Amino acid sequence: MLLTTTISANAALIGVLPSTPGGTDYQAYYDDQLNISWLANANAYGGPANWFNASSWAAGLTVNGVGGCRLPNMDINGDGSNANLVDCSAAGTSQSACADNEYGHLFYYGAGTTKGAGITTANQSPFSNIQSGGYWSSTEHANIVLDARVFDFGTGANGVAYEYNTANVWAVHDGDVSLVPLPAAAWLFGSALLGLAGFSKRRSLS
Question: pLDDT value at position 9?
Answer without folding.
Answer: 54
